[in-house]
């Protein structure tokens, strides 16, 4: 550690930052930019920007200690021989890039978990990292790497909304009903984007928990059941937001698991009309009537409106066809 501290003290300060050095407790979230410069006989190239979470299997101790000595807004740099960091940096950079990939729905949370589970920390001969610049860097190693860090923000654990991959199992389980409640509150306030985000995060947590269980065991089944109201609520938000294909995908999952869900068939009919799957919409309305005859009047009104739209579309298409034939 004394070697690291001496190296950190020797860093070149490009911008001093402001305030005191923050108190970096376990669970602190830091956001920083880093730029990596490969030096080949005094020539420089390659750079990238990413975020990190403190105390999360940090594979480059130098960076952790370096950040702990930085003020917010500080920019500083260090240059290291490739032989001291070449076996670690490509893996470190790859893991940051993977974790920082954007994801918009709960399936990508599952993909992220699979990437994490399959991650290997050992070097292999002619290993490919999945990024052309990293593969090239390993195949054609530089003499040195220059690292430039800029510390942007520091947030204590109680100030942040934890990402799923930072939660332990108990935190995951506790967060599902909280997220569902928050989603419902956003929906009631007509904040549909915010509601959808809460439902997606809750679904992502359930997917993570299900990965740990044996499919179709009791615990797995209980988790799977918790997904159904979340999927239904998410689909309703997506209908309102005109995200019809996403809504169809999520409603299909509900119907597959619960073929007597009247609300799901009704919502799917709406989504099918929006993407002009007319026959599918008619079948969904028929299923609604089959499951709940008390909704006959409502379904009849919807079917009348649907047939009106079909006739209007047919008339419009006939007019377009005539125009082409008699030009």
From TrEMBL:
InterPro entries found in the cross-reference section: AIP/AIPL1/TTC9, PPIase_dom_sf, TPR-like_helical_dom_sf, TPR_rpt
Keyword hit for rRNA-binding: no
Entry keywords, A to Z: Repeat, TPR repeat
Gene Ontology molecular function terms on file: peptidyl-prolyl cis-trans isomerase activity
Protein name: AH receptor-interacting protein
């Amino acid at each position: 550690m004394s070697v690291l501290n001496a190296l950190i003290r020797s860093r070149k300060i490009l911008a001093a930052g402001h305030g005191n050095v923050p108190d970096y407790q376990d669970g602190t979230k830091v956001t920083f930019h880093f730029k990596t410069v490969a030096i080949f006989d005094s020539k420089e190239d390659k750079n990238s920007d990413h975020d990190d979470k403190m105390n999360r299997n940090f594979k480059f101790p130098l960076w952790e200690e370096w950040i702990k000595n930085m003020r917010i807004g500080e920019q500083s740099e260090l240059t290291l021989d490739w032989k001291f960091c070449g076996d670690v940096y490509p893996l470190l950079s790859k893991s940051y890039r993977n974790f920082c990939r954007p994801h918009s729905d709960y399936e990508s949370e599952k993909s992220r978990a699979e990437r994490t589970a399959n991650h290997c920390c050992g070097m292999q001969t002619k290993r490919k990292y999945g990024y052309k610049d990293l593969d090239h860097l390993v195949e054609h190693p530089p003499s040195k790497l220059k690292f430039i860090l800029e510390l942007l923000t520091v947030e204590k654990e109680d100030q942040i909304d934890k990402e799923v991959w930072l939660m332990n199992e108990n935190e995951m389980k506790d967060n599902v009903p909280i997220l569902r409640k928050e989603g419902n509150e956003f929906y009631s306030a007509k904040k549909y984007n915010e509601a959808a985000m809460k439902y997606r995060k809750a679904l992502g947590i359930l997917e993570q928990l299900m990965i740990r269980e044996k499919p179709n065991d009791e615990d797995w089944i209980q988790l799977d059941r918790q997904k159904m109201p979340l999927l239904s609520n998410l689909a309703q938000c997506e209908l309102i937001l005109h995200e019809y294909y996403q809504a169809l995908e999520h409603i299909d999952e509900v119907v597959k698991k619960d073929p007597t869900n009247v609300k799901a068939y009704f919502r799917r009919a709406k989504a099918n009309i929006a993407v002009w799957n007319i026959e599918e919409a008619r079948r969904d309305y028929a299923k609604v009537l089959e499951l709940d005859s008390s909704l006959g009047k409502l379904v009849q009104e919807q079917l009348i409106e649907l047939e009106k739209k079909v006739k209007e579309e047919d008339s419009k298409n006939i007019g377009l066809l005539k125009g082409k034939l008699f030009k």
